[in-house]
Design goal:
The chain is of the alpha/beta class. The chain has helices at about 45-55, 105-110, 150-155, 160-170, 190-195, 210-215, 230-240, 255-265, 295-310, 325-330; strands at about 5-10, 20-25, 35-45, 75-80, 95, 100, 120, 135-140, 145, 180, 200-205, 220-225, 245-250, 265-270, 290, 315-320, 340-344. The protein has two domains: about 5-160 and about 295-340, Medium-chain alcohol dehydrogenases, catalytic domain (Quinone Oxidoreductase, Chain A, domain 1), CATH 3.90.180; about 160-290, Rossmann fold (3-Layer(aba) Sandwich), CATH 3.40.50.720. Strands 3, 4, 5, 8, 9, 16 and 17 form a seven-stranded mixed beta sheet that branches. The chain has a six-stranded parallel beta sheet with strand order 12-11-10-13-14-15, with helices on both faces. Strands 1-2 form a two-stranded antiparallel ribbon. Helix 8 (about 255-265) links the parallel strand 13 and strand 14 (about 265-270). The longest helix is centred in the last third of the chain and has 14 residues, at about 295-310. It is globular, with a radius of gyration of 20 Å. Its cofactor is Zn(2+). Pfam families: ADH_N, ADH_zinc_N. It comes from Candidatus Nitrosotenuis uzonensis.
Length: about 350
């Protein structure tokens, strides 16, 4: 029996208690003719994993079962293919997003919205997660990655990238449209870049100066430090920028969401890219609130293509697999500049 290393979550607890344990478990193997086996080279660390590990999202059914291997933005090399595989070859680089599978036959799937499928499977919510050395997946839900893309560069595209891209598209970007990104971190810094590709005026908001520095470095037209004192913060925003045409929220905070809503002009759009409640909403202002989370297989392929064509800058730092607890703890306390990537 071949073995692999994996960081396994067996009990929900604060990240300070180091709940992920390095184990040697049986290596995944191909069980279906349409599966591929990937040797993982990089897996991005998403804040949603932190919420799942600490039990914040139990009410949403996350994680659905224990034990589990977290990790849902994965890039690696195909080392074996099933007898029916036609889309991948051994030696090719492939990526896996949070969308691990769907029924492929319901109305959502038929119309290219398989990420909304009621039967959708999520990567990293089972023993098939990226905090490991190997993973299998059906060829239909893996995305080709150009050979020249470094795996540690490409991995964040498979959650942070697609989440940011879908949120920007939901904000209906256009030239000079004023879009505010609330929460410029691992996802938000990519939203800044995607919005700039659409020629928007982009304002980055964050509590951390280091996150604001990242936003400015990658092209934000302006950055403003977030202040929990909403009246003072909104006064400052209006003084510097006026009201926004649209706001994108990645901070899982009710107060930030409320502030973003109030920073947008009447008839504007607020895109929520995280779990959370909408505290207050004045219907008389005719604002639109939209939710968005990951995307379809086509969306994922588009993100890789756009990153390649526009030489998208991804701010990341790599860490060894066994440091997953430490990385998540740093993420919790905003010590990660943008995206952390684990390398087995």
């Amino acid at each position: 029996m071949e073995l692999m290393r994996a960081m396994i979550l067996e009990k929900l607890s604060p990240i300070e208690e180091n709940p992920l344990n390095l184990r040697q478990i049986e290596r995944h193997g191909i069980k279906k003719s349409n599966e591929i086996l990937i040797r993982i080279e990089a897996c991005g660390v998403c804040r949603s994993q932190l919420h799942g590990i600490e039990g914040d999202w139990v009410k949403y059914g996350i994680p659905p079962a224990l034990p589990t291997i977290p990790g849902h933005e994965i890039v690696g090399t195909v080392i074996q293919i099933g007898s029916g595989v036609t889309k991948f070859r051994v030696g090719q680089r492939a990526g896996i997003s949070p969308l691990y599978g769907s029924c492929l036959s319901c109305d959502y799937c038929v119309h290219g919205k398989e990420h909304l499928c009621d039967m959708a499977e999520i990567t990293g919510e089972s023993l098939l997660g990226g905090y490991a050395e190997y993973i299998t997946i059906t060829e239909d839900f893996a995305t080709p990655v150009p050979d020249f893309m470094k795996p540690e560069y490409a991995a964040p595209l498979f959650c942070a990238g697609i989440t940011a891209y879908k949120a920007v598209v939901a904000a209906e970007p256009s030239t000079d449209k004023k879009i505010g990104v609330f929460g410029v971190g691992g996802v938000g810094h990519l939203a800044v870049e995607f919005a700039k590709i659409f020629n928007c005026r982009v304002i980055g908001f964050a509590r951390s100066k280091s996150h604001l520095d990242v936003a400015k470095r990658i092209g934000a037209d302006n950055v403003i430090q977030y202040d929990p004192n909403q009246p003072e913060f909104l006064t400052n925003v209006r003084k510097e920028e006026g009201l926004l045409d649209a706001a994108i929220v990645f901070a899982p905070s009710e107060s930030v969401t409320d502030t973003a809503i109030n920073a947008v002009k009447k008839g504007g759009t607020i895109v929520i890219g995280t779990f959370g409640n909408i505290p207050n909403f004045d219907v008389t202002q005719e604002k639109t609130i939209r939710g968005t989370l990951i995307g379809s297989r086509k969306d994922m392929a588009d993100v890789v293509r756009i990153a390649e064509q526009n030489q998208l800058e991804i701010v990341y730092k790599t860490f060894p697999l066994e440091k997953a607890n430490d990385v998540l703890r740093d993420l919790k306390y905003s010590k990660i500049e943008a995206r952390a990537v684990l390398t087995p």
